[in-house]
Write a structure and sequence with these properties.
The complex is a heterodimer of chains A (118) and B (119). By secondary structure, chain A is an all-beta fold. Helices cover 0% and strands 44% of the residues of chain A. Chain A is built from no helices and eleven strands. A five-stranded mixed sheet of chain A has the order 2-11-10-5-6, with no helix packed on it. In chain A, strands 3-9-8-7 form a four-stranded antiparallel sheet, with no helix packed on it. The termini of chain B are far apart. The radius of gyration of chain B is 14 Å and the shape is globular. The mean pLDDT of chain B is 93. Chain B is mainly β. Classes of the chains: A mainly beta (118), B mainly beta (119).
């Protein structure tokens, strides 16, 4: 079975501090996108950031950035200057294994629940 | 605009009822998805429509019946559900259909979900 590992079920960070959420995955694809989504208590899945696997440059989106290590199949999310509104479940989403060619569908890790302390 | 809408927000039904969930997007997206999410779990893929054709069915029981009447609308018809089917049902869409090379158009955009309770 395809594995996506988010090794930290829960994390806590002080407001204004920095936190890093880890994710490792397996894939046989060479060209793909990876995503981080957040799901606050409202339950809507919200795109946080995406990374193109063939780009060596790590993606950044305001206070969110990734550390993408393609060979190691590692895709961590760094949140800088954490805010109370960042409290949510964060899901790593690499490409879903597909038989017969890439379709770019996603598989989700088990999630990391992030709490932000004031 | 990256809005996907879902109705209803909440649904309570008995095991003998027939009900439907609705998902709509007006972004011209060519792939639409149904996911099931149990509490404290990640979303699990159920169905994928590409260019209004059912492309992926993840061995979902026949009591769940998807339908894609047009490129903007996705329905999930429910019949004879079990209490274990209670979950959050998420709809998503993406620009690219299930063909062609991977690109940023693989990005999926989610609706707010329908919270289903089966009594």
């Amino acid at each position: 079975a395809q594995t996506v590992t988010q090794s930290q079920p829960e994390m806590s960070v002080q407001e204004a501090e920095t936190v890093t959420l880890s994710c490792t995955y397996d894939t046989s694809e060479s060209d793909y996108y990876l995503f981080w989504y957040k799901q606050p208590p409202s339950r809507q899945m919200i795109l946080v950031i995406r990374q193109e696997a063939y780009k060596q440059q790590n993606a950044t989106e305001n206070r969110f950035s990734v550390n993408f290590q393609k060979a190691a199949k590692s895709f961590s999310l760094k949140i800088s200057d954490s805010q109370l509104g960042d409290a949510a479940m964060y899901f790593c989403a690499p490409p879903r294994r597909n038989y017969g060619g890439s379709q770019g569908n996603l598989i989700f890790g088990k999630g990391t629940k992030l709490s932000v302390k004031p | 605009d990256t809005e996907v809408t879902q109705t209803p927000k909440h649904l309570v039904m008995g095991m003998t009822n027939k009900k439907s969930l609705k998902c709509e997007q007006h972004m011209g997206h060519r792939a639409m998805y149904w996911y099931k999410q149990k509490a404290k779990k990640p979303p699990e893929l159920m169905f994928v429509y590409s260019y209004e054709k059912l492309s992926i069915n993840e061995s979902v029981p026949s009591r769940f019946s998807p339908e894609c009447p047009n490129s903007s609308l996705l329905n999930l018809h429910l019949h004879a559900l079990q209490p274990e089917d209670s979950a959050l049902y998420l709809c998503a869409s993406r620009p690219r259909g299930l063909a062609g090379l991977t690109s940023s158009t693989d990005t999926q955009y989610f609706g707010p979900g329908t919270r289903l309770t089966v009594l």
